[in-house]
Amino acid sequence: MKSKTSYKAVVYQHASLQGGFWSGRAIDRQLNSLSGEPSNYWISDFLQSDFTTTPAMGTRRLAIAIRDAAKKSPLLIKQELTAAGTLANGLGGQRLSIYDFGNRMGLSPAAKAALAAELKSSAAAQEIFQFDMGTYKNLVAFKSVELNNGALLTADTERFDKVFQQEPVDGSKDEVKFVTKGKVVDEKFKTAR
């Protein structure tokens, strides 16, 4: 080490030298990043290491937390979580934790708490993973809006706001009008929930 302020260091440990997954901690003081995150190339390419939480597992945990928290929350929190869930489509390949997700999306403390309540432990919110778009799209494929008149509007999560245009109704702060157009390709009945 030539300088105590500019260096890279890593330590790995495991009970057995023969097998198992070695866990470790890395420090990258050469990067001079405010967040203190080690550079990805050093971890992945040079050390041939990766996060304990796989992209599929971390993304699945986030998607299920968003989906389940949105089901159980009051309307304002549901709207906040569905908006963040829609914006998550732009996170493909990025490394983050569920805690980071809440901060990046500007979620309110109540929405962050709703997400955290869906996790098995508080440590799960801190685990870093690489966001996997395929896993996310499988778990949060459709967005639905239910109106008090009985209408249920459903479309692909990414395209919902393009399929349905939302307009406020004059003189009302709670009522909205949805407009869409298209060709009828199917009609069906659905059983009660």
Features:
single chain; 193 residues; alpha+beta; 3 domains; two-stranded antiparallel ribbon; 8 strands
Q: Quick gist of this model?
A:
The chain is of the alpha+beta class. It has seven helices and eight strands; from the N terminus they run E-E-H-H-H-E-H-H-E-H-E-E-H-E-E. Helix 2 runs parallel beside helix 6 (133-139).
How are the elements arranged and paired?
Layout: E1 8-13, E2 23-28, H1 40-46, H2 55-72, H3 75-87, E3 95-96, H4 98-104, H5 109-117, E4 129-130, H6 133-139, E5 142-146, E6 152-156, H7 160-163, E7 165-168, E8 176-179
Describe the 3D structure.
By secondary structure, the chain is of the alpha+beta class. The chain folds into 3 domains: 8-46, no CATH class; 55-139, no CATH class; 142-179, no CATH class. It is 34% helix and 18% strand. α2 (55-72) runs antiparallel to α3, α2 (55-72) packs across α5 and α2 runs parallel beside α6 (133-139). The model has no long low-confidence stretch (mean pLDDT 83).
Which word captures the global form? elongated
Helix count equals: 7
Weakly predicted, low-confidence segments: none
Taking the sheet with the most strands, its summary is: 2 strands, antiparallel
Overall pLDDT metric: 83
Widest sheet: strand order? 1-2
Report Rg: 22 Å
Structural class of the helices, strands and pairings? Answer: alpha+beta
